[in-house]
Amino acid sequence: MDIKGKVCVITGGAGGIGAAMARRFHAEGAKAIVVADLDMGSLQKVADSVGGHAVQTDVTSEDAIRHLVAEAERLAGPIDIFCSNAGIARLGDETVATAEWQLNWDIHVMSHVFAARAVIPGMIERGGGYLVNTASAAGLLSQVDSATYAVTKHGAVAFAEWLSINYGNKGIRVSCLCPQAVRTPMIGDGEGVASVDGIVEPDDLAADVVATMAREEFLILPHPQVRDYIQRKTGNYDRWIGGMRKLLSKFDQR
């Protein structure tokens, strides 16, 4: 997929990864960029910086995502690339309130479902399109200090896999973005487990997104070590779990 001349929509676009993708897509010659988020002030600044459009959107609402798609097409034309990127870092174990679990589920899984429902039919009718769904390395491995994050990010990866399997022969390309720590407000002081292999800058991550899309590969891995970790996990699951326990103990002692 060549970004040049394409209409791109990015949720979670008010900052961090979403804003970096907007900047990179603009530099690659995108025809139009539509960014979506709840924070309209920051969102409009990002849109203005790339000559794009801002649409305030609550990704937990299917009606809101359908409105986003309709508004993007009104403003910019048929959507070629949809980056479902919104996410939160609200850590919790099995004891946190059910509402907290539901919020993680709605943002990390259902927002991707709503986006797919809204854009895939039109993409197929036009002969193809590209979905970039942001998950996390936690969706391939785990997040030792948050069940809510690990479980819902696994769901995000699983849904992206399903989309690629079921729609790949119909012209829909899917990539799943799975970084460890990225230098955004979500990582706080940067001392968490996800930063064990270093912290990636958002602009460097955006470059990885574009390069992976050009190859039309499924996994976008800004931290290349993650591929080795996946192989270790599947090669000996019990040994991998033991290693994760040691990692947890290491961070618990800090």
Structure at a glance:
The chain has eight helices and seven strands; from the N terminus they run βαβαβαβαβαβαβαα.
Architecture overview:
This protein is of the alpha/beta class. 50% of the residues lie in helices and 13% in strands. The chain has helices at 16-27, 40-49, 62-76, 98-126, 147-167, 202-215, 225-235, 237-252, and strands spanning 7-11, 32-37, 53-56, 81-84, 129-134, 172-177, 219-220. Strands 3-2-1-4-5-6-7 form a seven-stranded parallel sheet, sandwiched between helices. Helix 1 packs across helix 6, helix 3 (62-76) packs parallel to helix 4 (98-126) and helix 4 (98-126) packs parallel to helix 5.
Q: How would the blueprint of this fold be written?
A:
Blueprint: E1 7-11, H1 16-27, E2 32-37, H2 40-49, E3 53-56, H3 62-76, E4 81-84, H4 98-126, E5 129-134, H5 147-167, E6 172-177, H6 202-215, E7 219-220, H7 225-235, H8 237-252
Parallel strand pairs: 1-2, 1-4, 2-3, 4-5, 5-6, 6-7
